[in-house]
Every structure is written in C-alpha cells, then in structure tokens.
C-alpha cells in the first residue's frame, strides 16, 4: 500500500471513528492524527485509526462540555455577586432611612409602664440603628451584663415592631432579630 493510500484509509477511519460518537474532526486534527497513526505503525491500521478518531472526538466533546460548565459557573457567580451587591445597597439605604425615621418614631410610641423602656430604646438605637460595637454599648451601660443588654435590645425591637414602624425601619429591625 502506498503512503497516499494509507493516508486515505487512515483519514476515512478517523472520520468514521469520530462519527461513531456523533463527533467531527477539523482538518488540522485529522492531519495531526494521520501523522500519529502512521508513526505508531499498528498491526490493524484501520482499527487503530478508527479508535484514534473516536477518542479524539470524545476528548473534544468533554473539553467543550467543561468549557460550557465553566462559563455557566462564571455567569452564576457574576449573577450572585450582582444580587449580593444589590442586597447590600438596599440594606444601606434602609439603614440610612431608619436612622432618619428612628427619633420621630420613638417620640410617637405610647407611654409605657416598663421601668427599662428608656434602656430598651437606647439599646435599639445603639446596636440596631447606629450599629455600635459591643465595647461602645458596654461603656454606655457599664452596670449591665451582656445578657441584660441583649435582652433590652430584643425587648426594644419587639416593642417597636408592635407599633407599626415605617417600612425601612421595620426591615432594619427585623434583620436585627435574625442577625443578633
């Protein structure tokens, strides 16, 4: 068999092998595989070429699927980053509006017989509205324990939520009950 006949047989079998797994090979891939098959000098040239074409098509398909998965994951991460940024922006806007609405809303609350109502509202102002650190809160209430301060905050938030605060202030108060 002449070299051109060998190349023709190998080329045909490469294409058939790729076609057997619904794949296709480019001209460059075929040229590369012809050289590899002829250099290998297998006993069954046609069978070897068929398998080489099939394996190349499978490898190409896997590489394409991996690239698609990578692109889908990147798109998902970008979408998640965008939604996180939007959520943070909305939280910042709510926090800013809650700072503005807090004093007026506290003034509108009905009087209470609770002895610690002032401490409760001050704790809400410090921890929820101003996002003060634990050290700042402890220095503002030196004679109280961390558990007492936490209880004042929870009771103050609960008291404010009972009296229908504005929507932005409500969202900030509700978030504080989950993130305490």
Could you provide a short overview of the structure?
With 180 residues, this protein is mainly alpha-helical. The chain contains seven helices and no strands.
What does this structure look like?
The chain has 180 residues and is mainly α. The protein has two domains: 3-67; 109-178. It has seven helices and no strands. The radius of gyration is 36 Å and the shape is rod-shaped.
Class inferred from helices and paired strands = mainly alpha
Please state the average pLDDT score. Answer: 88
Rounded to an integer in angstroms, the radius of gyration calculated over CA atoms is: 36 Å
Percent strand:
under 5%
Helicity range of the residues?
A: over 70%
Name the poorly predicted regions. Answer: none
Structurally, the number of domains stands at 2
Q: Identify the overall geometry.
A: rod-shaped
Number of strands: 0
- The count of helical stretches stands at 7
Q: Sheet with the most strands?
A: none
What's the SSE blueprint?
Layout (H helix, E strand, L loop, with lengths): L2 H17 L7 H14 L4 H64 L8 H13 L4 H7 L5 H17 L4 H12 L2
What keyword list fits this structure?
80% helix; 180 residues; 2 domains
